Amino acid sequence: MELAVGNALVRRASRGEVTDAIRIYRPAEAVLVFGRRDARHSGFPAAVQAGRDAGFQPLIRAVGGRPVAYTSEAIVIDHVRHDLRATEDHQRRFASFGIQYADALRALGVDARVGEVPGEYCPGAQSINARGAVKLVGTAQRVVQHGWLFSTLTVTGDDDRIRTLLTQVYAHLELPLDPATVGSLTTERPDLTAATVEQHFHAVFAPDIAPSALDQPTLDLAASYAPDHRI
After folding, report:
1. Among 113, 120, 158, 174, which residue is least crowded by beta carbons within 10 Å?
2. HSE on the CB side for 62, CA within 13 Å?
3. How far is CA 73 from CA 22, 149, 158, 172, 194, in A?
4. Which residues contact 88 (CB under 8 A, 6 or more apart)?
5. What pTM value is reported for the model?
6. Which residues contact 157 (CB under 8 A, 6 or more apart)?
């Protein structure tokens, strides 16, 4: 349902039922999330089983990219907007959000930089790293007619668990990975907590906005999409 809600919001944005929304949440449990093309690889069943054996729930996501793993010690932010030019500004959004997230982490005292670290998991030119050495934030988009979803995943802890699992998963899928590039905010700043980072992101990206509950139309649509994310 956590993945399906983002899918539902962008579909509602496409229809103009949602004009602008930001969703900030901590995952309910540890998950291993694959892109759809990963499922076509002969090593996919073994990669899925590695996730289950490690206590991670395997899922398929709607946005692009390669496998990622995260736990409740992570912050996921979904930016959703109704936009008549959604298909035209794809790369500009990657660049703009990359700068914003790097700035937000630098405000926490982290040496955050925009750019892909060679050998990182789910590689992307607009990933946010620390010291040019370890990946901290992954970014992904889903663009539909008249709407877009920009999703970010910030790893705040449990990087040892994630590193061990991703090393196995990427080997099963025959994908390159340097385990040393798997990092987290708490490794960079041990005094940080996921709760502190979540509060900071709320202040940066949604100042003066009180959280509200998801409405029933979004939840109903998400429930219809949830099976698409299951393995």
Report:
1. 174
2. 25
3. 20, 22, 7, 25, 6
4. none
5. 0.94
6. 71, 73, 74, 184, 185, 186, 194
